[in-house]
Model the fold of this input.
Amino acid sequence: MRAKSKACLASLMALIVICAIPLFEPASASFAGSQRQLRIIAFGAHPDDAEIGVSGTAALWAAKGHAVKLVAVTNGDIGHWNEAGGPLARRRKVEVERAAKILGSTVEVLDNHDGELLPTLENRKTITRLIRQWKADIVISHRPNDYHPDHRYTGILVQDAAYMVTVPNFAPDVPHLTNNPVFMYSSDRFEKPNPFQADVIVDIDSVMEKKLDGLLGMASQFYEGGANGSAELMSNDPAKQKERWAVVRKRFVDRQRGVADKYRKNLEEWYGKDHASKVQHAEAFEICEYGRRPDKAELKVLFPFFN
Done:
């Protein structure tokens, strides 16, 4: 009986030790002092959305040798007032491929119809597989509260993958991640049901021209106005064409200046007051509470721009 009791006690102690092991490796063990290549994947609903939200920071990561992938979850095939279908989808794919070359990133466009995205099980598996295949450290997307249904459902799909990427028997054809990535949202202006919170804000002044170059190359969306454009925007007069390009450029400059001005105090927390006061253009990111919750020390490793 004593032998049996000792054996049971030993088994119980072993079980306690196993249960005490954390599901994910602690962030401090994974990243502290790490100089390895970071891997970032950003999802946008259409071919231009990830570029609008994150391309400045993407260029900064890429310049430091980190691997960045931007994914359009739909092909954008109704995103123009005069063009549609396969020809428009191919045109928009070329536009984001050009931007990727400028940024130093890679890009993928999924073949889902624009305006028809739904948070289905199959789409959840697709997003989960992409994150696993990229072996992502950081995953970025829209927030689930947004004006466009494709934006909302992209946010939901990525958010729903925030735990499933670690589950071995979900989409088991792609190995699961043993370290949960940090999931984040890019900034937006929407207030209800909750406003965006700038947990990390990045000075993109040094790469703002790269961002503008990439976005201004997406003529179908910005010069021509996308789904809400019109023939009136496309003048044959060179002076009016120049004026139109200036309007488009100013819109993006004002957007990133607005982020810097709105979150100036947040910039001070990351860069110090003197540097923050000089920042003209910024991108901001909110941490999703469903992925790993990094502390500030880990965030400085994941966003290695604050020295």
Notes: The two ends are 65 Å apart (CA to CA).
